[in-house]
Amino acid sequence: MALSSTPIFLFCTLSYLLLSSAQTCSNYTFASNTVFSSCSDLPYLHAYLHWNYFPSTRQAAIAYRASQNYNGWIAWAINPTGAGMVGSQALVAFHNTNGSMTAYPTSITSYNPSMLPGDLSFQVSNISAEYTNNEMAIFALVGPLNETSVDHVWQAGSSVSNDIPQMH
């Protein structure tokens, strides 16, 4: 799934999404008690994007959450080079083989990506994940980004094998 955004990283993107979507996620409480000033219902996959934007650093603290069963995975990404999945710089989360949540960055270089952990083309830190009430959530601090516009995409899959998310 993809949406286009406008200048200054996520601020304009997220402002647009906030104004154009239903506000059913605005009172959500994360298990970690993390608080976000803004959120938006995304149009597909029962997914939501929460954020705090910091204009002075061009960074955003984000939480992407989506409905998902215990054995599945979720991903949220920014595509700094174009629209769509290929070229996206993703954050992925799932339950690993010991049962704890795992979250890491990965680059989506094709329609059959490795989904292995890797570096992104922009800074990302404080990556974590949680699973509560059949929802997975990914948390991260993203940026700064210098692009004047970005696309973001999100996806989910139903299986993980050997701690690697499988095709959706």
Automatic annotation (TrEMBL):
<keyword id="KW-0249">Electron transport</keyword>
<dbReference type="GO" id="GO:0016020">
    <property type="term" value="C:membrane"/>
</dbReference>
<protein>
    <recommendedName>
        <fullName>DOMON domain-containing protein</fullName>
    </recommendedName>
</protein>
<keyword id="KW-0732">Signal</keyword>
<feature type="signal peptide">
    <location>
        <begin position="1"/>
        <end position="22"/>
    </location>
</feature>
<dbReference type="Pfam" id="PF04526">
    <property type="entry name" value="DUF568"/>
</dbReference>
<feature type="domain" description="DOMON">
    <location>
        <begin position="45"/>
        <end position="168"/>
    </location>
</feature>
<keyword id="KW-0472">Membrane</keyword>
<dbReference type="InterPro" id="IPR005018">
    <property type="entry name" value="DOMON_domain"/>
</dbReference>
<dbReference type="InterPro" id="IPR045265">
    <property type="entry name" value="AIR12_DOMON"/>
</dbReference>
<keyword id="KW-0813">Transport</keyword>
